[in-house]
Specification:
single chain; alpha/beta; four-stranded antiparallel sheet; 10 strands; about 25% strand
Length: about 250
């Protein structure tokens, strides 16, 4: 049984059909990267998986339990699904330490001292030992995003969803965040929506190419970048490679 199973997900906003039947599975500690043009439903898919935007049709299972069943306690399930947002979603009135520890206290009911120790460990893991008492306004974009990753890790999730985690960052800050994500490969399952093709090529177990609300093609990085079956996949990756040079093609 797959750790995460997404089956025939459909989602419509108003009269616009965003997702038109998306299905895939993930195993434990696997890294899957979703690529594709903007507006094709990649971020919506992540929000359907953790029920921030429940799908109109289809099912999602985590560890054999159907998340999309109305009887499922979604808050309990969300403890197992980390989410790293492109715009950080930190509490501006709390320090980095409290941003990470508060979920452990409020959601997992861990007593304050233990929660703070775990938060310190996770902040150290993402290279922020010296910023633990700083507020988001005192942090760079890359540091804020690493706080977001530490917050997700602290909850011991089965899978972490990353929604374009570097898209709001200045170019010189992107590398620090990607390095942290690379360090997590093989330690926690990650489903990552990104335009960072070099990163995708280097870390993904599988790449999913989406367009128009459907999966066009999926395969290993080697298959996708050197031997894609679908002409549209080859066209998209070719344009990305031309735009970003060798790094866009994988570095």
């Amino acid at each position: 049984m797959a750790m995460l199973e997404v089956k025939d997900i459909h989602k419509t906003y108003g009269t616009v059909e965003i997702l038109k039947g998306v299905s895939f599975t993930m195993e434990r500690e696997e890294t899957k990267v979703i690529i594709g043009p903007s507006g094709t439903g990649k971020s919506t898919l992540l929000r359907c998986i953790n029920q921030l935007s429940p799908p109109d049709k289809g099912q999602v299972w985590l560890d054999g339990e159907e998340i999309t069943n109305p009887k499922t306690n979604i808050n309990r399930i969300r403890e197992k699904i980390g989410f790293v947002f492109q715009d950080f979603n930190l509490f501006n009135h709390l320090t980095a330490l409290r941003n990470v520890s508060i979920g452990l206290e409020k959601v997992k009911k861990i007593e304050k001292d233990r929660a703070q120790k775990r938060a310190l460990d996770e902040l150290a893991r993402v290279g922020l030992e010296t910023q633990v008492h700083q507020y988001p306004a005192q942090l760079s974009g890359g540091q804020k995003q690493r706080v977001g990753i530490a917050r997700a890790l602290a909850m011991d999730p089965d899978v972490i969803l990353f929604d374009e985690p570097t898209s709001a960052l200045d170019p010189e800050l992107i590398g620090d965040v990607l390095d942290v994500m690379k360090s997590l490969c093989g330690k926690v399952a990650m489903l990552i929506v990104t335009h960072e093709m070099g990163f995708a090529r280097n870390v993904a177990n599988e790449i999913i190419f989406m367009e128009g609300g459907v999966i066009v093609e999926q395969g290993s990085p080697r298959e996708m970048f050197t031997n894609a079956k679908m002409p549209r996949t080859r066209e998209f990756l070719g344009k990305i490679g031309a735009l970003y040079g060798e790094e866009g093609k994988g570095g």
